[in-house]
Structures are given as C-alpha cells and as structure tokens.
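[step 3/7] fold_predict: job queued, chain A
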Amino acid sequence: MTKIVPGEYPKQFEKTIKIKDGTKVFLRPIKPEDRELWLEFYLSLSKMAKYYRFFSSRPDPDEKMIKQYTQIDYVNNFALIALVKENEKERMVGVVRYVLDPKSGNAELAIVIADDWQGRGLGTKMLIEMLGIMIKRKVHKVVGDVFLENDKMMQLMRESGFKFIGESQYGIRHFEFAL
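[step 4/7] structure written:
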C-alpha cells in the first residue's frame, strides 16, 4: 500500500467511470487549484441542494468556506470530485467527501451532485469509489446526517446498506455504516 503523506496529492485515486447512460465522468481528488471549479459548482446548485448538503442555502460562500472545501490534507479530510467536459470546458458535477475523526476512526460522509446530474447514477458510483478509498484508509465507520425530505439521498443510503439511527426534532436522520 502506498504511504499516505498529508498534503500530498494522491494521484492513484484518479479514475474514469461510466454512469448509467454510458457517459464518461472523470473522478479525482480535489486540489487547491480547483477553487474556481468548486465555486462555479457551488453557485450552480439550487437552494435546496445547498440546504440538503450544507444545512444552509447561503447564496455566496466566503473565502473561509472555499478554502475549507478545496484545501484538504487528503488524510483526515478527503474529497473526490466528478468532472465532465461541456462545451470544451471542464465542469464539476459532483463531490463526495469525508472528514475523519482520528481518535475514533470514524468518518463523516457527505455527497452533493449537480441538480442536472441527479438521478443518473453518479452519486452511487461516487459513493462506491469513496467507500473503497475509506476501506483502504482503514476507516472504521461511516457516519452522517441527512434530511428526511431529501428523498434521493435517503434512497441512496438505504439501497447502499446504511443503517439509520435516530431522528432529530428537525427532521434529520443520522446514518452509520461499519466498514
């Protein structure tokens, strides 16, 4: 297994996948220079997509938020992005990430797919790729929260074998998956 060096770009996780309709999508870890791609992606999300993913529908991210999501160490904070070519331009259409709690070995998982790419199997493929990375990284358990009204994410988690535990008064359900 390749030694993990914090801050060193893990090229071994670059991969081209095919989604349900045969479209090829390039997956790779996010890089600090993806700032503009990530910003365009964030700004393209609907209010509901932002709310479901970030638990806020903030119209414009501040610099701190942009850095938080694009400048990662690839160890305790890891993100895969999905890229496609549209009109000769690269476009980010999905992000799956985890944030590891080194003490417990558990990692919080989050996925967001561009509104116009939802329902095409990209979220499922990205989840599978990320779970594979988490297994290689020896993550013990995947955890996270999802709004009950987020039907697509609830379905993805259910179909992927995630266990739902508890529900808050705010309509948020906690999920877990032992690796």
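[step 5/7] annotate
The mean pLDDT is 92.
The chain has one domain: 11-140.
exit 0
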